[in-house]
Structure formats: structure tokens, C-alpha cells
Amino acid sequence: MNGRPPNRAKAAQRRHSPGKGPGPLNAQASAALIVHRVDQGESLSTALPERLARSNDADRGRIQEIAYGVLREAPRLDFLADRLLSQPLRERDRDIHALLQVGLYQLWRLAIPTHAAVNETVNAARQLGKDWAAGLLNAVLRGFLRQREALETALADAPEAVRLGLPGWLLNRLRADWPEQMSALTTASLARPPMTLRINLARTTRDEWLRRAHEAGIPALPHPVVNSAVTLETPCDVRRLPGFTEGEVSVQDAAAQLCASLLDAGDRQRVLDACAAPGGKTLALLERAPQLDMLALDIDATRLGRVHENLERAGLSAVVRAADAARPDEWWDGRPFERILLDAPCSATGVIRRHPDIARLRRPEDIDPLTARQAELLDALWPLLAPGGRLLYATCSILRVENELQIDAFLRRHPDAHEIRLPEGWGQARPQGRQILTGEDGMDGFYYALLEKPA
Ligand SMILES: C[S@@+](CC[C@H](N)C(=O)[O-])C[C@H]1O[C@@H](n2cnc3c(N)ncnc32)[C@H](O)[C@@H]1O
């Protein structure tokens, strides 16, 4: 005791509203709160920005790095925590479990001094209003440092889902779909993805942009396969990118950028982007042909806000509408589309490296409803296509059932549809469409199939 009376009001405030108290939390506490929210079923894309908005500018990069790292390594960190704790933490202390994961991740994977990692984690427990956990965390983290070698040996013999860091049901599906590529796929799914950009080729050339990036001290390389794409050597804040606010460059994986050349929509054609938000592909299509008569639809009105922002930044225009693409009777004016992009809602198993929360939140029972939804969207949109028109089906999934098997079933249901073979040089040809497996040519896992209605 230091003789001063405890400040009960402050302690109580911290207990009831961690992170809403007077000062910002340290990076460890902030990262733990993000991980905890994902653990409770929220997506990283909601939990992360909300917490970052309440953090110091200087801490944001570190918070993000720790939160992503912990989510990538979660099964392994849980394995370590189980062995170090004499009994599991109570359900109401899952925030402390998340903080323990943060502490272990720092000691195990980040090159920071161990005493700083331990002290900051212990301080974070106090900031979260759980002073009682300070001693426990201190002991467990020091235990890890002492037993590290034995723990790593035990980890090598752990069950597959722990060792490979992905849930068992997903590993089983990947093994069934991609037996030979399984090992590369699991590694790529948990690797840090590159930051890839799309250059607006209507405004500048890729070489010119690379020259300006080099001058600005941002080393970048042209993507080997996609001619609008560049890959940064190190991720950086978009505000530092030359021409970002003017719409000369946008963040988008190279696999997603392929949509524009594959759909090949020409100026003034009537185009439907049926699942458009947040607008990455809408923009890619419009940058290639700015005069398109584009309708960008999405069922999620909130996410459509991002489409408006993106269009405004790039100085491009489209009709943007919140509607269920599977219910054209509610929004279609009866004029056929010459091109349709269906970037369907999917398991997102091809982008786990960018959204590691997917590995935790996605459930095996999600897959059947998703494939049913994709089939429903395909069937509902096909009649809207003009004779001679083309529909590009896309997913960021690596599961065959959402991709080639989905298109195979569609072609059986619609004898008037035929598949156009896609150009080579990326991914791999499948019986229907082409598949990019996560990490190939540095790209996200992605699938495309192009369907045509006879003239
Ligand atoms: C893969 S994301 C689209 C990404 C977007 N094309 C891009 O490149 O930025 C799938 C989108 O489908 C939307 N969606 C899901 N069901 C839908 C439906 N029935 N009608 C329209 N949009 C739907 C979701 O809200 C989500 O924004």
C-alpha cells in the first residue's frame, strides 16, 4: 500500500467501461478489446475501426499489427495458454484471455524487449479495470519465457487444427477440394498479405505512378500478372500514396482487379454491378470505361455509403441503389443489361489472410445457405441479361461448391447459357471458370466464370 486511499470512482469507471475512461488505453489493452469483440462474434471490420478511432495516432499501427497477429495465431496461442494456466479463465473474463493472447503473441512473435511486453500487458489489465489479473498475467507470461522450448515441442505434436491454425471443418474441406495444394494453401491463408494497389490507367500510367511513388520514398513493384496492379514493399497509410485523394490509385488486391478486363464492358454499355459495396469493382469497371451506364446495387444500405465515397474520390458516376438483387421486381426498370457483374456473397475463404477473423467466425453450417443464395442470385439476374450479353460470376472463395460446382449446376439449369473460356496466364483452368488459390502470384484466393446469353 502506498498510503493513499484508492480512487474508487476511477477504478469503478474503468471496470464498467474499459477504454471509455479519461486517457486512451495502451496498445495491448486496445488490441485485447478488439480480439475480445471478435471472440464474441463481431467482425474485425467493425471492431477494429471503432477502437482505432479512440486510440492515439502513434499507437494505431501497433494495435492493428497485434490484433491481426493474434487472430492469425489464435489456435496456437490458445494451446499455449491452456498449458500455462492452472485452470481456464471464467467466461466473464474472456477479455483477460484475449489480453493473455496479446501478451503471448508479443513474446513469441514480435521482436520487442520481453520486460516491456510483460509490463505493458500487466498495465493493460489494470487499464481494463481488472487489477486482479495483473499478477496472473505476469506469472503466466514469465512461465512462457521459462518453458518456451518445451511448449514449442508440444505444439509440434498438437492436433492439426492447432498446428495449421485453421478450424478442422475448413481443413477437411480444403483437403477434399485441393489435396495437393492443401499445405501451401493453409500457409498462404495465415501469411501477411501484400498491400496491392490499382492504378487508374485512365489518369496515369503504371510506370509514371511507380516513378512518383519511388520519389515519395514508397518502394513498389509492378504486379507480374495484372497490368493495373502494383505491390508495395511495405504497407503504408493511403494518405501517403501519390494521387490517392485524386482517385489515381486505390487499394485493391490484384485478383479483384481482374474483373474489369474479364467483363470487358465498353463505353455507354448498360452494366449492373449486383453486389457492389464497398465499390472496389464498380470503380475498377468505371476506370476502364468511364462512360458506362452503371447501376451499382447492394442489399446493405450502410455499406453503400462507401460506394458513394469511392465514386466521389475518383470523380466517376453511377446510379447507386440499396436493393435485394435477387428481387428484380422491386428495382428493375425492365431494360436489359449488356454486362452483369455478380460478385456474390461467399465464405470469403480466399481472403482469410486479409480478414483472419473469418477463420474464427465462419461456421460449417454457413456454407449451404451461402451456396443457395448464390444460386438464387444467379437465377434471378440471368433473365435481366440482354441477348449477346455477358455475366461475370466472381467469389473470393476457394471452395469448389461455391465456384465451379455452382456454375456447373447453373449451366444445367439454364441451357440457354454458355460459358466463355477465360484468358490464361493467371490462376488455373477448372471444368468451369478459373480459380486463383490464395497466394498464387501474390493474389487473394478468387474465382471467376464468364457466362454468355446467345444473341
Ligand atoms: C463480396 S462483397 C462485394 C464486394 C464488392 N463487389 C467490391 O468489390 O467492393 C458481397 C456484397 O454482396 C452484398 N449482398 C449480399 N446479398 C445481396 C443481395 N441479395 N442483393 C444485393 N447485394 C447483396 C453484401 O452486402 C456485400 O456487400
Write a structural description.
This protein is α/β, with parallel strands linked by helices and 455 residues long. The chain folds into 3 domains: 8-158, NusB-like (N-utilizing Substance Protein B Homolog, Chain A); 191-243, Alpha-Beta Plaits, CATH 3.30.70.1170; 252-452, Vaccinia Virus protein VP39 (Rossmann fold), CATH 3.40.50.150. The chain is 46% helix and 13% strand. It contains 17 helices and 13 strands. The protein has helices at residues 8-16, 27-39, 44-53, 57-84, 94-109, 114-127, 133-156, 160-164, 168-177, 182-189, 206-215, 254-263, 280-288, 301-314, 357-361, 367-381, 404-413, and strands spanning 196-199, 220-222, 229-232, 249-251, 270-273, 293-298, 319-322, 337-343, 385-395, 418-420, 428-429, 434-436, 446-452. The strands form 2 sheets. Strands 5, 6, 7, 8, 9, 10, 11, 12 and 13 form a 9-stranded mixed β-sheet that branches. It has a 4-stranded antiparallel β-sheet with strand order 2-3-1-4, covered by helices on one side. The protein is globular, with a radius of gyration of 24 Å. It starts with 7 loop residues before the first helix and ends with a strand. The protein binds S-adenosylmethionine. The site of S-adenosylmethionine (SAM) has 19 residues, from helix 13 and strand 6. S-adenosylmethionine binds at residues 256, 274-281, 297-300, 303, 324-326, 343, 345.
Summarize this, please?
The chain is of the alpha/beta class. Helices cover 46% and strands 13% of the residues.
Keywords:
455 residues, alpha/beta, N-utilizing Substance Protein B Homolog, Chain A, Alpha-Beta Plaits, Rossmann fold, 3 domains, nine-stranded mixed beta sheet, four-stranded antiparallel beta sheet, 13 strands, binds S-adenosylmethionine
